Amino acid sequence: MSNIDLFHDFLLHEKRYSRKTADSYCLDIDLMRRFFAENGEIELEELTRDDIEDYLGALYSEEKVSSLHRKIAAFRHFYKFLQKREIICENPTLLIRTPKMDKPLPHLLSREEMNKIISFNYPDDLKGLRDRAIVEMLYSSGVRVGELVTIRVKDLDFREKTVTVLGKGSKERLIPVTHQAIESIENYLLKRKGGKDPNAVIFCNLRGGALTERGVQFILDGLALKCGIYRKITPHMLRHSFATHFLENGMNLRYLQHLLGHENLSTTEIYTHVSIEQLKKVYREAHPGSK
Q1: Is 85 a catalytic site residue?
Q2: Catalytic annotation on 284?
């Protein structure tokens, strides 16, 4: 029985790993074995740290970072097993560094999709006025949905067109909002019971209670279908769209950091990658050589 087979049994019966995980780990190890067998007939038990890093380097341009993470985990477990069974003296994977995981780019709405939602013919009733105000506020301020549902009437300065938001870590920030958003909120409050009571939350459900984050998601689910957008829209997508569209229009990254309430600039910088991806997409569509 090979050491890979022994390792497979060890994962199943001693570590109690699932068969899928055990199979995946052993496949990764066997692929490495084949690679070295075809390139010099080096046995797995003879590999050094440099050998394994060279192998991972050869895979780097072809594999996702998540796949490399799994392979490295498999190799570490395998060589730890061999060392424990005294098949090898030293574990060559001890000092191998794991590559940083790529940060997933945020999902956002295109300008065309955003325009469909903004220009939708909302009914002139309490629900329609509220839903328009929610969309306008999310897209014009970039607030998180958790911040949106806690905004009170007194937090809005209707004259200066600003809103004070209590963000993460109980930190307040002052955000400008558009004239359209202020107008939509005023129209909604005029129709709503309680009107401009300073201590009342702005966005309520149709029974008069404070709207929840889940309630906002439910509103967007229905709105997407009515607007002819056949994919899931989340409040966070409107926040991402706000940030990306502002950045594409030349907003300073530091200003955007403040508007979004990010503690670190590095969190805001992900939107520069989104803009670059959009630029590449437009380039590929427009360039004659890409046809």
Answers
A1: no
A2: no
Percent of the chain with pLDDT over 70: 89
Instruction: Check if 144 is active-site.
Output: yes
- Measured CA to CA, the distance from residue 47 to residue 38 in angstroms comes to 14
**Domains along the chain?**
3-84 (1.10.150), 111-286 (1.10.443.10)
Does residue 70 carry a catalytic annotation? no
Distance CA 242, CA 235 (A): 11
Structure token digits, residue 87: 């098949």
Residues 215 and 146: beta-carbon distance below 8 Å: no
Indicate the pTM of the whole model.
0.60
The first and second tokens of residue 146, run together, are 């958790």
User: Is 16 exposed, middle or buried (CB count within 10 Å of its CB: 0-12, 13-18, 19+)?
Assistant: exposed
What are the residues whose beta carbons fall under 8 Å from the beta carbon of 82, sequence distance 6 or more?
3, 7, 45, 88, 91
Spot the catalytic one: 130, 239, 240, 245.
Answer: 239
d(CA 290, CA 288): 5
Q: Report d(CA 44, CA 87) in Å as an integer.
A: 11
The CA distance from 258 to 175, in Å, is 8
pLDDT of residue 279 exceeding 60: no
Catalytic residue among 127, 152, 191, 236: 236
CA–CA separation, 135 vs 238, rounded Å?
8
Any catalytic annotation for residue 168? yes
CB 119 within 8 A of CB 113: no
Residue 139 annotated among the catalytic residues of the structure: no
Q: H or E element: which one contains 268?
A: helix 265-268
For the stretch 73-94, pLDDT in tens is 999 999 999 999 999 999 999 8
b/e per residue, 35-69, with b = 16+ CB within 10 A? bbeeeeeeebeebeeebbeebbeeeeeeeeeeebe
